[in-house]
Structures are given as structure tokens and as C-alpha cells.
Task: structure prediction
Amino acid sequence: MQPYSSEIEYYMVTYYNTLSEDDRRRYAAVESVKLGHGGKAYIKRLLLTSYDSIGKGYRELSNPEQIDTSRIRKVGGGAKAKKKIKSSKRSSKK
Result:
């Protein structure tokens, strides 16, 4: 299956790579639904994603009230903040 031209595929992949993880899932799901039979496999190969990600995106779009648009990451997600360490100044005596 090759429903899109190489040029359109390039634009799709370029756009996909600018999206957040959540938006990538949903975009892949929308594209696979648009294509119908065989669309999921085509989008999986084109966007280098997984069937699970596409399925999760589809489930999120099927229940839009469950989508949290206020945050990109869950609370507590991401890198932990570094703790500030008090520096002790040593006085050097000569």
C-alpha cells in the first residue's frame, strides 16, 4: 500500500517529528483511520511507530473527554530537579 506520494510522505514524517508524544499517537491514529484497510500497517511503517501507539491514539480520540490538554507530561514525570548544595567557603590562612 502506497496511498501517498513520496513528497507527501516526507511532509507527513517531518510534521510528525515536531509533535509531542501524545500528539504523535493521535496523528498516527487519524491517518490510519483515513486510509481504512491496511492503513494501520502503512502508517506504522511510514512513521516508525507501533500498533500499540496507534491503537492508544485511536482510543484517546474515541473518548476526547479523557484527554488531558493542560499538561504534556503527567505530574511527577520527566527529569527530576537537581538539589542545590550549599557551598561552604573555606577561609585559607597563610
